[in-house]
Amino acid sequence: MIIVLRPDATKKDIDHIITKVKKLGLKAMVSRGVERTIIGVIGEEDVLRMRPLEAFPGVEKVMPILKPYKLVSREFRGKSTVVDVDGVRIGGKKIAVMAGPCSVEDLKGLMKIGKAVKKSGATILRGGAFKPRTSPYSFQGLGEEGLKYLKEVKEATGLKIVTEVMDIRDIPLIEEYADILQVGARNMQNFNLLKEVGLSKKPVLLKRGISATVKELLMSAEYVLANGNFNCMLCERGIRTFEDSTRFTLDLNAVPLIKKMSHLPVIVDPSHGTGKWELVSSMSRAAIAAGADGLIVEVHHSPEDAYSDGAQSLVPDKFKEMMEALAPVAKAVGREL
Questions:
Q1: Side-chain-side CA neighbours of residue 303 (13 Å)
Q2: Domain residues of the chain, as ranges?
Q3: What residues are paired with 205 via a beta bridge?
């Protein structure tokens, strides 16, 4: 349920409504816009139906949200959310590009990649310090050592850091180093993890599960917002279909669909979505044309020697070419790099 307040509603009016809602065992989430403040009420709403909320001071109207995802929905917030990552804004006119290796392997290589992607226009460095792998015998990441390498590259380049969190026990450690907490596809419905990153002050990048529907992705994001963290971004990274010519099927239908259903920024991962470096640039252009707010792309200085995902990683020169090719597409749809 959404409680829309009048423009002249006072702080006292808002506090009074919140107090009443909480006494009924419900949670009140306040969203302040330029012209209107609204209060989203989540929980078992039947207890509110007999209360004349329109009679409360400062209330203009009360609207039910019929969708199962409440805070994530366009009904709750009509204006698109812009996530501010310490000065890097994601969801506005400018397209955010996150780039870097799948796995953090060593400081020298990471520094080389970081400087290259920064020079080509990326603003965020991606790199896995903790790696979820299908095989228990594959490289699992460097852990805290990898996080320290990411921090060194950040200090040298000014790039922000996005890295994956797999375990609620690792959140405090990763928060010390990362600017964005990534929840990977395999953990999209790890509800305990979603609750914990929802309590974090760090922005969250939530990747769509391998076989998840858009609705399931939005419901997972609802866990993050319901625990207080509205700085959440959604990532389309390809889904499993019958097609086996590519690693996954990059579902670009999801981009405009999600933006119609939700106010959260949408990022596209063409590297995982295709699994083939030759397709990354074209799918990146298509993603921007479809309305994506950003890209997350794998870049490695020597893909044949990469510990993971070398086949889908661009070399720095190819990344530079991709960024140059993206600029006119972004301009054509009223965006910029």
A1: 19
A2: 2-63, 83-332
A3: 182, 233
Looking at per-residue pLDDT, the higher value among 33 and 93 belongs to 93
Token digits for 26? 């419900």
In which band, very low, low, confident or very high, does the pLDDT at 50 lie, cut at 50, 70 and 90?
A: low
Picking from 166, 66, 150, the residue whose alpha carbon sits closest to that of residue 111 is 150
Fold of domain 2-63? Alpha-Beta Plaits (3.30.70)
Q: Which two tokens stand for residue 239?
A: 């889904």
Q: Residue 116: left (phi > 0), alpha (psi -120 to 50), or beta?
A: alpha
CB atoms within 10 A of CB 94: 17
How many other C-beta atoms can be found within 10 angstroms of the C-beta atom of residue 325? 13
Q: In DSSP terms, which residues pair with 268 in a beta bridge? A: 236, 295
Distance CA 78, CA 269 (A): 25
Residues in the chain: 337
Higher per-residue confidence, 2 vs 99 = 99
Contact 18, 39 (CB under 8 A): yes
Residue 216 DSSP one-character state: H
Residue 31, SS3 per DSSP: strand
Q: Give pLDDT, residue 49.
A: 64
83-332 topology per CATH: TIM Barrel (3.20.20)
Query: Which residue in this structure is represented by tokens 């959310």?
Result: 81
Which tokens is 194 given? 């979603």
- Nearest Cα to 238, choosing from 254, 258, 256, 215? 254
* DSSP-assigned letters across all residues of 237-261: --B--S--SSSSB--TTHHHHHHHH
Buried/exposed code over 2-29 (b: 16+ C-beta within 10 A; e: otherwise): bbebeeebeeebbeebbeebeeeebbbb
- With 80 as the cut, is the pLDDT of residue 33 above it? no
